[in-house]
From TrEMBL:
Protein name per Swiss-Prot or TrEMBL: Cytochrome c oxidase assembly protein
Top-level lineage group: Bacteria
Membrane disposition: Multi-pass membrane protein
Keyword Cell membrane set for record: yes
Residues spanning the membrane: 20-37, 49-70, 82-102, 122-145, 151-176, 197-218, 238-259
Length: 310
């Protein structure tokens, strides 16, 4: 089917598929590799479902489904593809906990080597919240506001490599943020919440630029001669909304997981504090201080502040 002459409708969206050999081979290798290590690990089945359906499934649709078919014809479809392969598919891959499955499957010697790599300086740098957030924020700006965007429209090689890069950056981001897999250093989930606010602001500014700013790759879209669908300006306006609004919407499940992990961390901290209080001998100065704290204001009952200024 020729996407240039066939209007995008619900029917054509369901029926549109294309062959993308590089992506297909890569997805198959990723699925097979994950399946091998998952069977040797104690991870529950729903982790494999998240990895295969949300991760690899969305990645496949974004590359070979109607999103991939119409990505060179409509600006907003390309924006949708970016959201799917930068935010949705990597989120599913990270929820599958592939590094945990790999660590559990390689045996004692492999786990020791795994730990050595995880403690290296390069691992600390790549897995830090600052590095992952900067990469996630910077790459859309670089793609849209440089010659990168037009290059991926005219070159299938640049297109494929860009999509692979986006999946890798997205996975690195969720790996460092969710901290479900082993990480070089564990950061409080509150850091993730604050970083998410900054990322939302950065995406919003880029969305406004795409909405109100100059046309991107206008000569390429004009040369297509598409005689159906929105105008070039309307197409870019819709694409700005897809990238900005949809990007925030698909980020909600991520925030829910972060809130859940934040609450879990608080429960563990509360249990540790309770156990410490129970082990404190009655009548001691520490026990009296704990009694005063329990009767005080909220900032007096906060475990971290109490321990710091005790």
């Amino acid at each position: 089917m020729n996407a240039l002459t066939t209007p995008l409708t619900l029917e054509t969206a369901l029926a549109s598929w294309r062959a993308d050999p590089v992506t297909l081979v890569l997805i198959v290798l990723v699925l097979v590799g994950y399946g091998i290590v998952w069977r040797r690990s104690p991870l529950p089945a729903y982790r494999a479902v998240l990895f295969g359906v949300v991760g690899c499934g969305v990645w496949l649709v974004a590359s070979c489904g109607f999103v991939g078919v119409y990505s060179d014809v409509l600006f907003w479809v390309r924006a949708l593809q970016f959201v799917l392969i930068l935010m949705v598919a990597p989120f599913g891959l990270a929820l599958g906990m592939p590094l945990t499955a790999l660590r559990d499957a390689v045996g004692a010697t492999g786990r020791a080597r795994f730990g050595t790599v995880a403690r290296s300086r390069i691992a600390h740098l790549l897995a830090s919240p600052a590095t992952s957030s900067m990469a996630l924020l910077a790459v859309p700006w670089l793609i849209y506001l440089s010659g990168w965007y037009r290059a991926l429209l005219v070159s299938s090689v640049v297109d494929v490599l860009t999509r692979i890069l986006l999946v890798a950056i997205g996975f690195g981001y969720f790996y460092a943020r969710l901290q479900l897999d082993p990480v070089p250093h564990r950061y409080p989930q509150g850091v993730t919440l604050f970083a998410s606010l900054a990322e939302t602001l950065g995406d919003g500014v880029l969305g406004v630029i795409l909405w109100q700013g100059p046309l991107i790759a206008a000569d390429f879209y004009a040369a297509l001669g598409r005689d159906w669908g929105p105008s070039i300006r309307t197409d870019q306006t819709v694409g700005a909304g897809v990238f900005w609004i949809l990007g925030d919407v698909v980020g909600l499940p991520f925030l829910l997981v972060v809130f859940g992990r934040l609450r879990a961390q608080e429960r563990v901290r509360e249990e540790q504090v309770d156990a410490q209080i129970e082990q404190t001998p009655p009548g001691s100065a520490a026990a009296e201080a704990d009694d005063l704290v329990r009767q005080g204001l909220w900032w007096q009952t906060d475990p971290q502040i109490r321990e710091r200024f005790r």
